[in-house]
Amino acid sequence: MTVYKKKVAFHTLGCKLNFAETSTISRSFPEEKFEKVPANSKADIYIINTCSVTDTADKKCRQAIKKFISLSPGAFIAVVGCYAQLKPQEISSIPGVDLVLGTNEKFNISDYLSGFEKRKKTEIHSCNIKPDEDFNPSYSLGDRTRSFLKIQDGCDYSCSYCTIPLARGRSRNPEISSIISEAEHIAGKGVKEIVITGVNIGDFGKSTGDSFTSLLKELVKISGIERFRISSIEPNLLTDDLLDLAENNEKILPHFHIPLQSGSNKILGLMRRRYTREIFTSRIKSVLERIPLAGIGADVIVGFPGELDSDFEDTYSFLDNIPLSYLHVFTFSERPDTLAEHLPGKVSFTDKEKRSKRLIALSKKKNIIFNNLNAGQYSNVLFESTRNEGLITGFTSNYIRVEYPWESRLTGQIKTVRLTKVSLSGRMNIELIE
Ligand code: SF4
Fold it and tell me: Is the beta carbon of 199 within 6 A of some atom in ligand 1?
């Protein structure tokens, strides 16, 4: 007798941490009972793991919820995560939503599902995050090329524009030993690269008396995992100890993504960031003294309240003159319950757009300069598993995207390559050395 398995689809919005967490939630749906289907297909249950970092993120969440409701009318709709934590009522006002679970409750989703019956009234569970909140370990196991491993959650900083501490609570992490066990489990699945994720990962150890560098020293001992990529680290937490380790251990990839946010000290002050642009510069210098071809990216926010044309020009020339390999540009959006919401000097939509376009163009220019600087160099590439227009792509250790004619034997493999030239797509062409 064939048993009908309920079709369940997972959809994730936002950061790598959310992806790792969705992956963990999806593993709580046993394969004997559920058939996991892609989010754009018809399903009986949709689990939408949301983000609320900007207005646009909230909007994308609402659009996704409505899309799934119209794709499969009658399906059970569960909305979980940061947006669900911060705005449960807003979500429950969308007709068809059955369940809303906050950032902690989402890990116990099976306790709330009872038969997947459509609810007459939306059920909401999004408790306040307590300071000593449990840590919910998570990692992703997608295409078995790389895994996102969560090592930390929450944040004790109080950047004036950010709602993440409200959505995820205070900084916390598990013991190093429990992260090592998870990483060993991931290694056992044949994964070659772990991307270390969290909300503020440089803060690792605060709740257990350890440090991020001591965690890395243990992680690199695991056999099977050949690469550890640090997803993002605050400039003030990028210590010389950490850089010394990265310089001397090739498993720590020479790629640092550092949230700068603004190149104007006036704006950094208004943002309540914990560094100045001079400190940022000194960190970049420390990286490049040790690892001259390290890939260094930065997040930048344009249009923060009080950002005059002259402040933006300050940021622009700062970024133009500092050796970064790419920028991630964000347009400021006002979040309720933040200090920035009440700051004077709002920037018009048109000015935000103009500034954003200029920085995106600058990012492209910097990326080409960085790629050209690497032309002729040897590097290691981890090849991905998706075929795109007859090509296979992958990333070098210092985060240059490369392309090569498709060969299925390369998927999930790390190979030595020589970078030749920048292709029309902006990726690097390579020669395979093997
Ligand atoms: S460091 Fe600042 S921007 Fe990042 S999560 Fe913490 S409060 Fe938000």
Answer: yes
